[in-house]
Amino acid sequence: MLEVNGLNVAYGRARVLRDLSLTVRAGEILCLLGRNGAGKTTTMKAIMGLLPLMSGRVVLDGQVVSDLPPHQVPRTGIGYIPQGRGLFADLTVAQNLQIGLMVRKSGTQVLDDVLDLFPRLRERLHQRAQTLSGGEQQMLATARALCLEPRVLLLDEPTEGLQPSMIEAIREVIVMMRARGVAVLLVEQRVDAVLSVADRVAFIENGRNLETLDAARLRADPAILERHLGV
């Protein structure tokens, strides 16, 4: 289980997260929802150690990962797919995947399993990442994170700008990871996509917790979404 306890984070003098807490259980998809500027991406970066914490901590299955330097956080089994994908554009598909495999010294069987999920990438192993379509790049970013054999998967706007067929392919992989016992934290603006996969939804505003609800309740009462998001 991933536990985020009382995070306070600032950019210079501007406080962004204010005592933010959440938990994501193994085999669960928790969606983080909030208006633009609510602190969703900051939460992801703070979990990965990419932003310094003023206070609070991040714990994975009893290990305090917020005590680790950023380059060691993925070694604990936290895979991160950032908004914008964060690929090595000049490297090939194979080289990008190899970097993911190296993090936890995963073997060729892991690579084969990942490519089975994304057969299109198998056809493009020797292409540079920058030559891929937007959807293929999102597949590659996701595949690279899966090469870590993650216990936790963080996805920031994974369907942004993608055509419907690519959105469905990414959605299927997210659901599959949940079935394999991975804890999934998902930031997504498309409310319909959120409600189709989420187990729970955590609302935040101005870096603070609002409420965390079962997705089934939101599907039954859309007025809650309108109250928090204005949609």
Short synopsis of the structure:
This protein is α/β, with parallel strands linked by helices and 231 residues long. Helices cover 35% and strands 26% of the residues.
Structural overview:
The chain is α/β, with parallel strands linked by helices and 231 residues long. It has a single domain (2-229), classed as Rossmann fold (3-Layer(aba) Sandwich), CATH 3.40.50.300. The chain contains nine helices and ten strands. The strands form two sheets. It has a six-stranded mixed sheet with strand order 6-7-8-3-9-10, with helices on both faces.
Task: Reconstruct the topology from this structure.
Layout: E1 2-11, E2 14-24, E3 29-33, H1 40-47, E4 55-60, E5 63-64, E6 78-81, H2 93-103, H3 108-117, H4 119-122, H5 134-146, E7 152-156, H6 164-179, E8 183-187, H7 191-197, E9 200-205, E10 208-214, H8 215-220, H9 223-229
Parallel strand pairs: 3-8, 3-9, 6-7, 7-8
Antiparallel strand pairs: 1-2, 1-4, 4-5, 9-10
Helix pairs in contact: 2-5, 5-6
Order of helices and strands: EEEHEEEHHHHEHEHEEHH
Share of helical residues: 25-40%
Lateral strand order in the biggest sheet: 6-7-8-3-9-10
CATH topology: Rossmann fold
- In total, the number of domains comes to 1
Radius of gyration: 17 Å
Number of strands: 10
- The total count of helices amounts to 9
Query: Could you tell me the strand content as a percent range?
Result: 25-35%
The end-to-end distance, rounded to whole angstroms, is: 31 Å
Largest beta sheet, briefly? 6 strands, mixed
Shape: globular
What are the segments in which pLDDT stays under 50 over at least 5 consecutive residues?
A: none
